[in-house]
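README: folding subset

This subset contains proteins for which both the sequence and a predicted structure token string are available. Records are stored as plain text. Below is the entry for Phosphate regulon sensor protein PhoR (433 residues), shown exactly as it appears on disk.
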Amino acid sequence: MQDIRWNTFWVLLFISFLSLIVWGFKSLEVASLFFILCLSIYLLSHVYWIYRLNKWLKNPNLSTIPDGSGIWEEIFAILYREYRKQKRSKSELTTTLGRFMTAAEAIPDGIVALNQNNEIEWCNKPSEKMLGINLSKDINQPIKYLLRETNFTEYLNSNIYNDSLKLISWRNTSRSFEILLVPFGASQKLLICRDIAQIEKNDSIKRDFIANVSHELKTPLTVIVGFLETLSDMKNEFNEKTYSYLQMMLEQSDRMNKLVEDLLQLSSIESNAAPAEKKEIDMLHLFKNLKKDSDLISGKLHTINMSIKKNISLLGYEKEIYSAFVNLVSNAIRYTEKGGSINVIWDMKNQNPYFEVQDSGIGIDQKLIPRLTERFYRINSDRGRNTGGTGLGLSIVKHVCIRHQAQIEITSQVGKGSQFKIIFPQERLSLKK
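--- output ---
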């Protein structure tokens, strides 16, 4: 641009110099007319090249770009280079976008791009099939007009997308989807939809298999345990070595019986995905039974303290709640040495009732905490077996929490003990006067 300004300056200087020469040979009037004429020709040439530029901009093409003359030659040369560079960048961008679109279409999950107003900008073929979207007709349509589910609308408006949302297909109730919203850019979102019907079917088959096997094992186990208990009462009929074998058989039969009972309970809770009933629970009676069972499990070898707020009642399914509470307490007893202390707390914080168990046990490594609620997972396998644990207690607790819309929080420090807390939502609270 600086060269163009200097070029214009030298042209005007040259016209002025020629006008001075004309003034020297002629009069001032002639020189002025000569200056005006030259300046007019110069300006008209600019008007001409502006006209050519405007005409080219209406239909830009590298092959038809004007050559120009004077300063316009340089302007058109710069324009040629920039247009060529832009065209190359556009070609590369189109190629990259094409590859992205091809890759997005190959993904089995449904993907929908939403703008800041939650309107559909683009979607791939799987999402059209899963969600019933027709991109040619539904582009720029708000997604909530197509997914008219109350749960989805609340999820979309919450602006909290840490967890996914499960939806039953409104077109085919035998199919279910998992939906996750992922914010990106300024205020845009990606809606990712996955068909989980087969996964749920497999889980259902697995649950049914475990429940059926556990149920079938229940009867023969009851018979075996009954006979072993009868034989155990006939101590004088056996020598000491044979009697010790009988006791070992009885212990393992009891352990297997507990495992079957826990499997049946877990299968029962898992098979019922609906939220638990909101029936008022007599918490004082529940904690009275919990204290009695805790002392029985401990064998009076631990100090069990209970801090219970009497005016806080819970709305839920009593059997499941008690199962979760007793599992947490028995878990604390199992991993606390003899003479250790266990604190059981029932209180309220920020209008949310919570149940907490604190122990002075062996503690848990931080990296192991996320796995604690997995089935059959134990921190110390030998210790769990020796103390009669089945490895299903915390998994039962997790599913009871899901049924009651509660959250479980676990904090621990190796060698200093652990704290397990179940925080119930406010709608599960019932206050007594």
